[in-house]
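Reopening: structure tokens for the adenosine-5'-triphosphate complex, inputs below.
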Amino acid sequence: MIALLSRDLALAVRAGGGFGLGLAFFLIVTVLVPFGVGPDSAILSKIAPGILWVGALLACLLSLDRIFALDFEDGSLDLLATAPIPLEGVVAMKAAAHWLTTGLPLVLAAPVLGVLLNLAPAAMGWLVLSLALGTPALSVIGAFGAALTVGLKRGGLLLSLLVLPLYMPTLLFGAELVARGAAGLATMVPTLMLAGITLGACALLPFAAAAALRVNLR
Amino acid sequence: MIALLSRDLALAVRAGGGFGLGLAFFLIVTVLVPFGVGPDSAILSKIAPGILWVGALLACLLSLDRIFALDFEDGSLDLLATAPIPLEGVVAMKAAAHWLTTGLPLVLAAPVLGVLLNLAPAAMGWLVLSLALGTPALSVIGAFGAALTVGLKRGGLLLSLLVLPLYMPTLLFGAELVARGAAGLATMVPTLMLAGITLGACALLPFAAAAALRVNLR
Amino acid sequence: MIPDLGKYAQAVIGAYALSIALLVLLVGWSMWRAARVRRQLNEIEARRVRNG
Amino acid sequence: MASLWQYANPQKFLQTTGAVLPVLAVLTALTLVVGLVWGFFFTPDDYRQGATVKIIYLHVPSALMAINAWLMMLVASLVWLVRRHHVSALAARAAAPVGLTMTAIALLTGAIWGQPMWGTWWAWDPRLTSFLILGLFYLGYIALWSAIENPDAAADLTTVLCMVGSVFALLSRYAVNFWNQGLHQGASLSMDAEENVADVFYIPLLVCIAGFVLLFITLVLLRTRTEIRARRISALLARERMA
Amino acid sequence: MELTVSDLSCARGGIAVLEGVGFTLHPGNALLLRGPNGIGKTTLLRTLAGLQPALAGRVSAPPEAIAYAAHADGLKATLSVAENLTFWARIFGTSGIDAALTAFNLCDLADRQAQNLSAGQKRRLGLARLLVTGRPIWMLDEPTVSLDAASVTLFGQAIRAHLDSGGMALIATHIDLGLDADKLDVTQFRALPQRLDAFDEAFA
Amino acid sequence: MELTVSDLSCARGGIAVLEGVGFTLHPGNALLLRGPNGIGKTTLLRTLAGLQPALAGRVSAPPEAIAYAAHADGLKATLSVAENLTFWARIFGTSGIDAALTAFNLCDLADRQAQNLSAGQKRRLGLARLLVTGRPIWMLDEPTVSLDAASVTLFGQAIRAHLDSGGMALIATHIDLGLDADKLDVTQFRALPQRLDAFDEAFA
Ligand code: HEM
Ligand SMILES: Nc1ncnc2c1ncn2[C@@H]1O[C@H](COP(=O)(O)OP(=O)(O)OP(=O)(O)O)[C@@H](O)[C@H]1O
Ligand SMILES: Nc1ncnc2c1ncn2[C@@H]1O[C@H](COP(=O)(O)OP(=O)(O)OP(=O)(O)O)[C@@H](O)[C@H]1O
Ligand SMILES: [Mg+2]
Ligand SMILES: [Mg+2]
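Re-run output (same inputs, fresh job):
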């Protein structure tokens, strides 16, 4: 199982794209927004939490279809399904690899980009906290969506459509957490909800995803 | 030449992704932003022009690498280069096909999404005008970037980084035009600038792109 | 005939027109597809009977 | 009558619904026409909302059915999951476009209502927002059904999506509520008499709701019959190609 | 342990392809599956390997006893030969890839990236994976595709060593492998096109 | 027109693999390339087809005369058999895919998506593509992989028809195809490891 994780990480680092793409996209979005919206720093700092979260979400969305598609095409998904590790574990490891290569860099880069968007300094910590709590859920939900659509034509488009509504609660609580943190309001509820969503998704969705994979491999 | 255009359009409509992807992405961005930023309609209507323009730009950016990459991989780009039509014409047709499948749908969908973002009704016309004037430039500039990076590994990432600074003037004038229109200010200058950029890009960039293609095909 | 809707006439009539149009579309599409699929199935079953 | 499950047999289902459907259709048309005509022509204006209150006869029934259609799909999917009755999977598939249309009607009438009442077509109100999300769920569900060729695999995958989607739809409902206290009316259809709207509005509304429920049932039955036939057609054609 | 298959039906794309398949494979034996293109050999192997459910019938061995090698080798182009093998060894909880490398003459290529191998070298790597699974029943789908004569000999030796140590092998192939093994022509199990007279059969 | 190759060197991954390759192929003839795995047959074919530059040497025929069929079939999984073929027919400006479908017994499968074909059926489709290119020189890399005996016969017929109409074929293969054609063992052209004495040679 650890072997799968380390292989996926090695592939992501080596094979181009997988690693930098999400981060670069995040950067592009957050750099573009001030140009589009205008330099008014009051407005910018108000919309910063939302923009950063939307950017993170888009960056995840873009890299999702790689989670299973490559392994499906070259036949290793078949071999993994017959290997002596549960398919649920495979899904969990794949999601973990996705988070480590996409989610984690976003969490680390977020404070820098927060400065670009005039995010209130008080909110910086909340931003990192919310991303750290929320991005694992994005990866797991994404892995579920990728398992549903592996091997389909138009998979990419369909995947975005399927995953988008599933991302909503995470996005809402995440952005709300930062916004409340910035405004000095109580942050207990969104923090708990975000953690709850992540825990629940990590605990349950691998089973749903493995079921979907089995159907798709048939 | 027309044959090339119609082939590209048919491929985009049929072969999955090419057609709907840009539009779907535009939709996703504009629907997500209010969820992230919060429901305050005053703020939303202020940032709407910028967000819509950034969304359109990202939608273009995402579909750029398909302009030449697919044809390069299956070898038809080689054949096109030796065919009795100028490579400049090939570039222009490819950019036109990209605009028709990505830019035009964005222009048509923008008013609906403007409503979602509480864009001032007065600005709706300006939004459509600015997108109609600006998106052709996005396609031509993108075709140039795609020609520069065709056949490179990590091409997608590099392409985004190359094209991004070239997109800045279009983005600035486009968003400014809508913002001024919404505020009832004079819109002459950004309109002229936007039209100028588009005309200039369409007139000159195909030659640069064809030169880049020749080098990459060597 | 049409009741006095005051200044909201446009909104109310628009809402009714739009909704009824959508419903008619849905019903029409469902019935059209039902008829077409039924006809296709009958054709195919008939072909099977003829061919044994 | 052995058990309810015998109606999960495709042939039996076609026979039974074939007999019921005409009656049901007439009933539906009657109820809908009576309800909507009553609502449009013979109800007074509200003292605050004026004539716009008439929109309620479309808005509320369609909103209710939009949610109920998803519930019905969830139940049908669970039946497929547990008992593997093909008809229930196809019924879930048949209900989705109906639910999507209901969602669209609720959203559109709401938007038209919002313009005079709140001064805007669209506001990021929790109820509106969660309906938008529900619409997205419907779209994804329908798209997944049509993307997969093998019908059993499609039924399994959409079932998984429906179950997971239901959980996340509920979650977003709470998230959205937490995110924004909205402009929208609270529930006023409660059984609690004091809270209720006046009977002049209430009774035609009930008729309209009944009409929409009947319409939903009729359409789902009709479309399920179509799906059953389509499934048989594709099976026959596949065999023909094999032979 | 032996592998007994009785009255197995398998389907692809929802349509029965083979029906009533039955055979027994004893430890130390191999069985060659023969039959024209598209008859259903791959489908049968995938069903036995547990990748898709059978329509009917019984298989005595659990999928956990079976190592499956498909038409595709499942190699990662950017990993080296040794890395590819090590990965599968870890997944299957065995240790040591040296024996596998030697058996398929891959030692010289151990540090080469898989994308820089020739077609036959890739196939050898795909076969070497079998040795690191440590599973008793091998199911091979046209294993000698792209192999030259010397490599086919290596493959034959590997199979014999596996059988001698009590393993079993089920091999779908179109060409003669030079193994003395029983042959099973799956053409005899071809599923007849179903009549679908009763309406409900379309849902079976 | 004939295909004359003289003193050709070709490289893969920057390292010379074959040196001094020379042969002549006359219209109506076929040439079988033999040699162990990894000797450089694929590299040679790719070089001749113009897919990579030669280090040295001359090839008389332009790439425009050559139709190349690689290890991979280059099929679009979501297009049907007929659509895949029609696409290539249009690209090459020929018309009519019926002859190609018939020649490889694909008529029954014409509407099947390529992803729903068996391995041998996919290969047949890959070979059928050659017929719609309308080009005189065929370069085939292990064409009969996964084919059953009947399909190998079909392939032989297609080759013979092509040769009879004045075409040429260059075929890399490990197994006997039953074609009466000249054989060329490329092992004799294996490149010697270079000495790299002068510093600049590393940059040649
Ligand atoms: C796009 C916009 C809208 C959507 C999606 C929407 C959605 C809904 C939903 C889902 C319900 C049913 C809730 C329930 O029964 O528990 C409902 C009921 C209702 N809506 Fe809307 N609504 C929208 C706009 C409006 C507007 C603008 C008004 C009027 C100002 C309005 C007035 C009502 C009323 C009076 C009810 C009945 C409440 C009740 O009796 O439960 N809605 N709406
Ligand atoms: N979705 C589908 N619908 C109908 N038939 C299908 C579908 N997918 C595959 N088939 C058919 O199922 C049959 C079995 O294929 P399989 O891959 O098992 O054959 P095979 O014996 O392995 O052939 P080969 O020797 O070419 O590898 C083939 O005839 C194939 O065309
Ligand atoms: N980047 C590289 N660096 C060094 N050697 C390489 C590189 N890429 C390929 N090779 C080697 O080049 C040789 C030629 O490979 P080629 O694919 O042409 O062989 P082949 O004769 O077609 O073999 P097969 O019969 O297995 O298909 C192989 O030995 C391969 O390992
Ligand atoms: Mg096979
Ligand atoms: Mg080769």
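The first strand of chain F starts at residue 3 and ends at 12. Chain F has a mean pLDDT of 83. Marking as resolved unless the reporter disagrees.
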